[in-house]
């Protein structure tokens, strides 16, 4: 009797944070129930297609986790190959993109079923039914297409994270990931979900604004044990908004510090929750190993923030976040979104000038600007369609939509070129502060030659004859995108351009 489940994570842009947590989370209950699990991560498996075809020969089913964007290409390629080589093996898609568009995903002939939302218990029930020769159609949390007709099972109740087993980190080849990144890293979730309902965000659609968190004691025990066992140097907390319960965040930091085990850790948050923590709390974060925090600040224009339904976002708290983080010796990255429907150039200028002022006051601030990308399921799609944005109609079309790819009819031609020039000057101005701080010999010369003209351009909104950009590029590559989880520079592919 077949008892093996093959799980695949397709290739994606950017360095891996470690083994894909989604697959490790799916693997844990399967292994506890006696199933064999084979994981294939294209990030460390060069010939991943051959590995997939080799593993599925005796598999019960083949699962693929998929995010919106270029990752879909590898997923479809693998699925089509398996359908040709082993047509008897059910192919199951899961993850964010299929969960948000299950019906559209099922239109692909290479997809037999879609696990929607939280997938650990659904996939376990699928595997049990398949192993017992029972049908899977109609299971809670599963969409399928028997006889070509889409059938969506009822929603599966969301399980508390504390009721699910620890992800199967023992399946991770940490040496392989270290060879790629140069460091032993671990991706770990202390929670999922965010209570806010930002109009551009898929998180509120996927998790329905529910904050589902592990108890602090479990987080401390699991993370410190994993760090010690696998010699981890950095842990990337994959929470959407870790300090929703800021007292819980403080307990986790205190637990890490009291354990005596040294490691760095990073996370994402919103400025309002971070500002509820005292200076002493943020110092505690830094002492416990926090080196970076990412924030979805997006804009400093009150009009744009209202359009985004980010009424909880306040400019004064952006300043306060930078100040508190500096006290803890913690770097921060502020994400910025440009081109949002209804945004004007005056709104953009307000954002860039305010962010430049924050960066001039606080050494620890970096930025990651992006063109607004309309992902599946977000609440403003009806408005976008009215404005002429064409929604992709297939997996292949969604594969052509990486973060930052501009499909906005109102941001094209000279206006787009002007926005990009503004961003380059803004980023160069901020990065030069760091260059002059880290290279004292260049300090006076660079400031005299570049800093004043850059500030003048940002103040007057004039960008013709950009000689400063050429000079600045000789000193340092302008970083256009950063990871909100770690703050590390990302590939420019798919960024503002």
Average pLDDT rating? 90
How many extended strands? 15
Task: Please give the order of strands in the largest beta sheet.
Answer: 2-1-3-4-5-6-7
Which class do the helix and strand fractions yield? Answer: alpha/beta
Residues in helices, as a percent range:
40-55%
Name given to the CATH architecture of the largest domain:
Alpha-Beta Horseshoe
CATH topology of the largest domain: pyruvate-formate lyase- activating enzyme
CATH class of the largest domain: Alpha Beta
What fraction of residues sit in β-strands? Answer: 5-15%
CATH homology group of the largest domain = tm_1862 like domain
Largest sheet: 7 strands, mixed
Distance between the termini: 53 Å
Low-confidence stretches: 492-497
Question: Would you kindly provide a written description of the structure presented here, covering whatever features stand out?
Answer:
Helix content is 43%, strand content 14%. It has 497 residues and is α/β, with parallel strands linked by helices. It folds into two domains: 4-145, 3-Layer(aba) Sandwich (Rossmann fold), CATH 3.40.50.280; 183-372 and 408-475, tm_1862 like domain (pyruvate-formate lyase- activating enzyme, Alpha-Beta Horseshoe). The strands form three sheets. A seven-stranded mixed beta sheet has the order 2-1-3-4-5-6-7, with helices on both faces. α10 crosses α12. The longest helix is centred in the C-terminal third of the chain and has 26 residues, at 413-438. The protein is globular and about 70 Å long.
């Amino acid at each position: 009797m077949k008892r093996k489940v093959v799980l695949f994570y397709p290739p994606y842009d950017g360095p891996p944070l470690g083994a894909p947590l989604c697959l490790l989370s799916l693997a844990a209950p399967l292994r506890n129930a006696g199933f064999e699990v084979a994981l294939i991560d294209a990030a460390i498996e060069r010939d991943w297609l051959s590995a997939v075809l080799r593993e599925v020969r005796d598999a019960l089913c083949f699962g693929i986790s998929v995010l919106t964007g270029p990752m879909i290409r590898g997923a479809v390629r693998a699925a089509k190959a398996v359908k040709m080589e082993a047509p008897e093996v059910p192919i199951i898609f899961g993850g964010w993109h299929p969960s948000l568009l299950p019906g559209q995903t099922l239109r692909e002939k290479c997809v037999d079923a879609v696990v929607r939302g939280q997938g650990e218990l659904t996939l376990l029930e699928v595997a049990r039914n398949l192993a017992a020769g029972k049908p899977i159609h109609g299971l809670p949390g599963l969409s399928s297409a028997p006889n070509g007709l889409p059938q969506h099972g009822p929603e599966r109740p969301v399980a508390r994270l504390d009721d699910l087993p620890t992800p199967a980190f023992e399946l991770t080849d940490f040496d392989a990931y270290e060879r790629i990144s140069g460091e032993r890293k671990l991706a770990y979730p202390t929670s999922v979900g965010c209570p806010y309902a930002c109009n551009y965000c898929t998180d509120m659609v996927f998790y329905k604004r529910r904050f589902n968190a592990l108890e602090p004691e479990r987080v401390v025990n699991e993370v410190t044990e994993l760090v010690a066992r696998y010699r981890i140097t950095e842990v990337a907390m994959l929470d959407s908004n870790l300090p929703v319960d800021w007292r819980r965040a403080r307990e986790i930091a205190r637990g890490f510090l009291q354990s005596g085990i040294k490691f760095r850790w990073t996370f994402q948050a919103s400025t309002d929750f971070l500002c509820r923590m005292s200076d002493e709390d943020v110092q505690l974060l830094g002492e416990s190993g926090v080196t970076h925090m990412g924030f979805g600040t997006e804009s400093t224009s009150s009009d744009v923030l209202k359009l985004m339904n980010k009424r909880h976002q306040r400019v004064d708290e952006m300043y306060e976040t930078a100040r508190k983080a500096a006290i803890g010796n913690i770097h921060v990255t502020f994400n910025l979104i440009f081109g949002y429907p209804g945004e004007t150039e005056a709104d953009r200028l307000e954002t860039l000038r305010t962010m430049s002022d924050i960066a001039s006051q606080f050494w620890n601030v970096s930025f990651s600007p992006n063109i607004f990308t309309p992902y599946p399921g977000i609440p403003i799609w009806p408005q976008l369609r009215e404005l002429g944005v064409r929604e992709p109609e297939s997996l292949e079309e969604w594969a052509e939509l990486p973060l930052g790819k501009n499909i906005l009819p109102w941001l094209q031609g000279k206006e787009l070129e002007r926005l990009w020039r503004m961003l380059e000057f803004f980023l160069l101005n901020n990065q030069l502060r760091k260059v002059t701080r880290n290279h004292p010999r260049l300090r006076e010369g660079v400031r005299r030659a570049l800093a004043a003209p850059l500030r003048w351009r940002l103040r007057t909104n004039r960008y013709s004859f950009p000689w400063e950009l050429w000079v600045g590029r000789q000193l340092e590559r302008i970083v256009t995108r950063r990871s909100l989880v770690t703050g590390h520079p990302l590939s420019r592919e798919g960024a503002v351009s």
